[in-house]
Amino acid sequence: MSNHQNPTHSIELTREATNRYVARNAAGVEVTFGRGEDLMSPVELLLAAIAGCSSIDVDTVTSRSSEPTEFKVEASGNKIAEENGGSHLEDLNLSFNLSFPDDEGGRKAAGLVDRLVKLSHDKYCTVSRTVEHGTPVAFETEISVGREEDGNKDTE
């Protein structure tokens, strides 16, 4: 079995205010999130990423046969407190609620959904497969004191 590597995916996160952040991809697309009434939390973004990844897998194929009349996916999980004070999610679940027109294309699309959801889970959804595989996360830090607005930093 070979491990084929594709290009690296990355985002840049910047702080707008306390508990308010913007994630920006290389194309300049932005998502604002954080902690507050008008923001999605990082945990909610993780759930959205899992739901979005599988939704793309299902929608890409079914929409070739028929446009859905309803396409809703609920992602949920239980936050578990750990003895060491940390936490994690368990019992992650995606619930697909899709409807298609009652015509030949709609029936064809509806007949594909269960298989596509399984393929997404087992093979295609990078996000859920990464979570299930338990991929390690590395952390690096670079800290400066007295950093100038133009990006210059003090060095020792």
How would you characterize the overall build of this protein?
Pfam families: OsmC. The protein folds into 2 domains: 10-39, no CATH class; 41-133, GMP Synthetase, Chain A, domain 3 (2-Layer Sandwich). The chain has a 3-stranded antiparallel sheet with strand order 1-2-3, with no helix packed on it. A two-stranded antiparallel sheet has the order 4-5. It is elongated and about 65 Å long. The chain is of the alpha+beta class and 156 residues long. It is built from 3 helices and 5 strands; from the N terminus they run E-E-E-H-E-E-H-H. Helix 1 (42-62) crosses helix 2.
Task: Provide tags for this entry.
OsmC family protein; KH_dom-like_a/b; GMP Synthetase, Chain A, domain 3; OsmC/Ohr_fam; OsmC/Ohrsf; alpha+beta; 3-stranded antiparallel beta sheet; two-stranded antiparallel sheet
Distance between the termini: 48 Å
- Chain-averaged pLDDT: 93
Oligomer: single chain
Shape: elongated
Tell me roughly what share of residues is in helical segments: 25-40%
Total count of domains: 2
CATH homologous superfamily classification of the largest domain: K homology (KH) domain
Per DSSP E runs of 2 or more residues, the count of β-strands stands at: 5
> Segments where pLDDT lies below 50 for 5+ residues?
none
Strand content: 25-35%
Quote the CATH topology of the largest domain: GMP Synthetase, Chain A, domain 3
Assign the structural class, choosing from mainly alpha, mainly beta, alpha/beta, alpha+beta, or little secondary structure. Answer: alpha+beta
Give the strand line-up of the largest sheet: 1-2-3
Highest-level CATH class of the largest domain:
Alpha Beta
Order of helices and strands: EEEHEEHH
